Amino acid sequence: MRIPTEGETIQIHSYKHNGFIHRIWDETTVLKGTKSLVIGGNDRTIVTESDGRTWVTREPAICYFHTDHWFNIIGMIREDGIYYYCNLGSPFVYDSEALKYIDYDLDIKVFPDMTYTLLDEDEYEYHRKQMGYPDVIDHILKRNVDNLVRWIRQRKGPFSPDFIDIWYERYLTYRS
């Protein structure tokens, strides 16, 4: 697996378990890239859905991907604070085309006061049956929901008080 380099602009590709593309983020600037971790930043990037529709993100975001965790975290910087959107999905891989992962439907939305909501449980159950998620994937994902909630409560990783601010400042150096 190639390692993305700091300052490089990459795409992020999200797939579904059946191998079909789910969503593509057109441009994310790599702020840190190692064989196990990618931290990126983007702002007003074009997102293409599987049906071809496009939209543009509304605010700056810092993205956190790790090969040891079945989730990724997006910290969105808004006027009233940092909101997090956490996708339960496979660990990422990176090739010459993009950073890639499988999205497994479950999401956790975290508000600036660090309260959170688990989202899309119905969608997860529907796709689990439709695409035949193996029991081992189901167990891994449920364990990672618990791990993610623990990170939120402990203010660990991207949820630590200064994490998003520090990486956003780094992102701004690439925009000037």
UniProtKB/TrEMBL annotation:
Keywords: Hydrolase, Magnesium, Metal-binding
Catalytic reactions of this protein: a ribonucleoside 5'-diphosphate + H2O = a ribonucleoside 5'-phosphate + phosphate + H(+); a ribonucleoside 5'-triphosphate + H2O = a ribonucleoside 5'-diphosphate + phosphate + H(+)
Binding site for Mg(2+) 1: N87, D103, D107
Known EC number: 3.6.1.15, 3.6.1.6
Domain of life: Bacteria
Residue span(s) of domain DUF402: 18-156
Coiled coil feature spans: none
Cofactors, names only: Mg(2+)
Gene3D superfamilies named among the record's database cross-references: FomD-like
Residues at the catalytic site: R23
Record-level Gene Ontology MF annotations: magnesium ion binding; nucleoside diphosphate phosphatase activity; ribonucleoside triphosphate phosphatase activity
InterPro entries attached to this UniProt entry: DUF402, FomD-like_sf, Ntdp-like, SA1684
Binding site for Mg(2+) 2: D105, D107, D120, E123
Function: Has nucleoside phosphatase activity towards nucleoside triphosphates and nucleoside diphosphates.
Stated family: Belongs to the Ntdp family.
Protein name per its UniProtKB record: Nucleoside triphosphate/diphosphate phosphatase
